[in-house]
C-alpha cells in the first residue's frame, strides 16, 4: 500500500473527530503506552480548574471566557455544580493560513476551563459547601486561582476584608488539606496492595513522603523534587497540589494602571505566573465589535484582553506549544508538549499516524507566509523532509506521511 499523507480536514475524519467542533477533550498532557504495539504516543490537552473564594469574580471570569450565562450573583456559593467551557487558544496565524490555503474554517487549539464553587476557610472541615466539589478539578492540567484585589463596598468579601495574600494562603491551605485527606484514605489500601505486589511499595513510600511535605504547608508541585518524591507513583490519586498553579488577580481599572501595585501582587506568587485583569471589563469586551473592543482596551492601557493572556500563560506554564495543519477544508492548531518529536505530534491526530509514521513535510509558518503558498515555499527550498528524530517547533506547518 502506498504511503498516505494527512494535513487538514482528513485528520478530523480519520481520527473520528466531529467535523463541526473541537476534538473530544482528552486527559491532561501525558505519555501513555499504546496497545501491544510498543509505541508510546501522546495524549495532550489543556484543562484549567478555576478556584477561589466566593465573590472574587470567578464566575464573571468564566462567563467572559466562554460567553456563557452562568449565575454570577453577589452572594457566596452562587456556583454549586461545576461549569465547564471550551475556548480556543488565540492564534492569529490560523487566519493567515486560512487565506493561503483558502480554508473554509479555522480550528484553534482547545482549552477547557472548569469553574467550581467558592472555597472558604475551613472547607476541609465542612465549612461553606465543604470541599467535595474539588473532585471536579482533580483531572485538570493546572489550577488557576482567581484572587480579588479590587475594593468595592457593594461586593462583600467572605472574610470581611480584601487581602490577596490572605486569600491565597486560604486557598493553598484548603487544597493541601484536601490532598492530606486523600492520602489518609489511600494509604491503608496502598499498604495492603504492597504486601501482595512488590511494585506497589514505591507508591507507599511516595505517599508517606507526600504527607510530610503537605504537613509542612508546602504544595507537592513545589516540594516533591526536594523530598525525592516521584509523582508518577501518585498519579492515580489525582492530588490537587501536584498541579502547577497560575494566578489571576481581579483588579479594577485604576489598579490595572498601577505598575507598583501589580509588582507587589506578582511578588506574592513568584515564581508562578500572574495575570491581571478587570473581570467586569473582560465581560464587556466579549460582547463588543472588534474595533470597539480595541478602543476600550487602549483606553485602559492594555494591548490585548486579559483572557487571551490567561490562555497563553496556561500553555506556557504546562510547557505546551502548537503545530499547524491547513488545507481547503480547515486550518487547525494541534497541542503538543515542547520537545515532542514528529511521530509523537502525528500521534496527537491519531495513533495510526504515529504507528505508521514515515516522514513529515515541514515548513515554518514565517517561511510559508513569506513565500505566499506551499508551492512557492517548496520552490524556494523552505519545505523540509523530517524523520522520526525531528523535534517539533512551535508554528511548524506540517503534512505527515504514514502507512499502516
TrEMBL record:
<protein>
    <recommendedName>
        <fullName>Ribosome-binding ATPase YchF</fullName>
    </recommendedName>
</protein>
<keyword id="KW-0547">Nucleotide-binding</keyword>
<dbReference type="InterPro" id="IPR004396">
    <property type="entry name" value="ATPase_YchF/OLA1"/>
</dbReference>
<feature type="region of interest" description="Disordered">
    <location>
        <begin position="1"/>
        <end position="35"/>
    </location>
</feature>
<dbReference type="InterPro" id="IPR041706">
    <property type="entry name" value="YchF_N"/>
</dbReference>
<keyword id="KW-0460">Magnesium</keyword>
<dbReference type="GO" id="GO:0005525">
    <property type="term" value="F:GTP binding"/>
</dbReference>
<dbReference type="InterPro" id="IPR031167">
    <property type="entry name" value="G_OBG"/>
</dbReference>
<dbReference type="GO" id="GO:0043023">
    <property type="term" value="F:ribosomal large subunit binding"/>
</dbReference>
<dbReference type="InterPro" id="IPR012675">
    <property type="entry name" value="Beta-grasp_dom_sf"/>
</dbReference>
<feature type="domain" description="TGS">
    <location>
        <begin position="319"/>
        <end position="402"/>
    </location>
</feature>
<comment type="similarity">
    <text>Belongs to the TRAFAC class OBG-HflX-like GTPase superfamily. OBG GTPase family. YchF/OLA1 subfamily.</text>
</comment>
<dbReference type="GO" id="GO:0005737">
    <property type="term" value="C:cytoplasm"/>
</dbReference>
<dbReference type="InterPro" id="IPR006073">
    <property type="entry name" value="GTP-bd"/>
</dbReference>
<dbReference type="GO" id="GO:0005524">
    <property type="term" value="F:ATP binding"/>
</dbReference>
<feature type="binding site">
    <location>
        <begin position="55"/>
        <end position="60"/>
    </location>
    <ligand>
        <name>ATP</name>
    </ligand>
</feature>
<keyword id="KW-0067">ATP-binding</keyword>
<dbReference type="GO" id="GO:0016887">
    <property type="term" value="F:ATP hydrolysis activity"/>
</dbReference>
<dbReference type="InterPro" id="IPR012676">
    <property type="entry name" value="TGS-like"/>
</dbReference>
<dbReference type="Pfam" id="PF06071">
    <property type="entry name" value="YchF-GTPase_C"/>
</dbReference>
<dbReference type="GO" id="GO:0046872">
    <property type="term" value="F:metal ion binding"/>
</dbReference>
<dbReference type="Pfam" id="PF01926">
    <property type="entry name" value="MMR_HSR1"/>
</dbReference>
<dbReference type="InterPro" id="IPR004095">
    <property type="entry name" value="TGS"/>
</dbReference>
<comment type="function">
    <text>ATPase that binds to both the 70S ribosome and the 50S ribosomal subunit in a nucleotide-independent manner.</text>
</comment>
<feature type="compositionally biased region" description="Polar residues">
    <location>
        <begin position="1"/>
        <end position="13"/>
    </location>
</feature>
<dbReference type="InterPro" id="IPR023192">
    <property type="entry name" value="TGS-like_dom_sf"/>
</dbReference>
<feature type="domain" description="OBG-type G">
    <location>
        <begin position="46"/>
        <end position="297"/>
    </location>
</feature>
<keyword id="KW-0479">Metal-binding</keyword>
<dbReference type="InterPro" id="IPR013029">
    <property type="entry name" value="YchF_C"/>
</dbReference>
<dbReference type="InterPro" id="IPR027417">
    <property type="entry name" value="P-loop_NTPase"/>
</dbReference>
Amino acid at each position: 500500500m502506498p504511503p498516505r499523507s494527512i494535513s487538514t480536514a482528513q485528520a478530523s475524519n480519520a481520527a473520528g473527530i466531529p467535523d463541526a467542533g473541537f476534538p473530544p477533550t482528552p486527559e491532561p498532557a501525558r505519555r501513555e503506552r499504546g496497545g501491544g504495539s510498543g509505541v508510546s504516543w501522546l495524549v495532550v490537552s489543556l484543562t484549567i480548574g478555576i478556584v477561589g473564594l466566593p465573590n472574587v469574580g470567578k464566575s464573571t471570569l468564566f462567563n467572559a471566557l466562554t460567553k456563557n450565562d452562568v449565575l454570577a450573583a453577589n452572594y457566596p456559593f452562587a456556583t454549586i455544580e461545576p461549569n465547564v467551557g471550551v475556548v480556543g487558544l488565540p492564534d492569529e496565524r490560523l487566519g493567515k493560513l486560512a487565506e493561503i490555503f483558502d480554508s473554509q474554517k479555522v480550528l484553534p487549539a482547545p482549552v477547557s476551563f472548569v469553574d467550581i464553587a467558592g472555597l472558604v476557610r475551613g472547607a476541609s472541615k465542612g465549612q461553606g459547601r465543604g470541599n467535595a466539589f474539588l473532585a471536579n478539578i482533580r483531572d485538570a492540567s493546572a489550577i488557576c486561582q482567581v484572587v480579588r484585589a479590587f475594593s468595592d463596598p457593594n461586593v462583600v468579601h467572605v472574610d470581611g476584608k480584601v487581602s490577596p495574600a490572605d486569600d491565597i494562603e486560604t486557598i493553598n491551605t484548603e487544597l493541601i488539606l484536601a490532598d492530606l485527606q486523600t492520602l489518609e484514605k489511600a494509604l491503608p489500601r496502598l499498604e495492603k496492595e504492597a504486601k501482595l505486589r512488590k511494585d506497589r511499595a514505591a507508591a507507599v513510600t511516595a505517599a508517606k513522603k507526600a504527607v510530610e511535605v503537605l504537613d509542612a504547608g508546602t504544595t507537592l508541585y513545589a516540594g516533591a523534587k526536594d523530598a525525592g518524591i516521584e509523582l508518577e507513583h501518585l498519579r492515580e490519586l489525582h492530588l490537587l497540589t501536584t498541579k502547577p498553579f497560575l494566578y489571576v488577580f481581579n483588579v479594577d481599572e485604576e489598579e490595572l494602571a498601577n505598575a507598583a501595585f501589580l509588582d507587589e501582587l506578582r511578588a506574592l506568587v513568584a515564581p508562578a505566573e500572574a495575570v491581571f485583569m478587570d473581570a467586569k471589563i473582560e465581560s464587556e469586551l466579549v460582547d463588543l465589535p472588534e474595533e470597539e473592543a480595541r478602543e476600550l482596551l487602549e483606553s485602559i492601557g492594555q494591548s490585548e484582553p486579559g483572557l487571551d493572556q490567561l490562555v497563553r500563560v496556561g500553555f506556557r506554564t504546562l510547557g505546551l506549544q502548537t503545530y499547524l495543519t491547513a488545507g481547503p477544508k480547515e486550518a487547525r492548531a494541534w497541542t503538543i508538549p515542547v520537545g515532542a518529536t514528529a511521530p509523537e505530534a502525528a500521534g496527537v491526530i491519531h495513533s495510526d499516524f504515529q504507528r505508521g509514521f514515515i516522514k513529515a513535510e515541514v515548513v515554518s509558518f514565517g517561511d510559508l507566509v513569506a513565500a505566499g503558498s506551499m508551492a512557492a515555499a517548496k520552490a524556494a527550498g523552505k519545505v523540509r523532509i523530517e524523520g522520526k528524530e525531528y523535534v517539533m517547533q512551535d508554528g511548524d506547518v506540517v503534512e505527515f506521511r504514514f502507512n499502516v
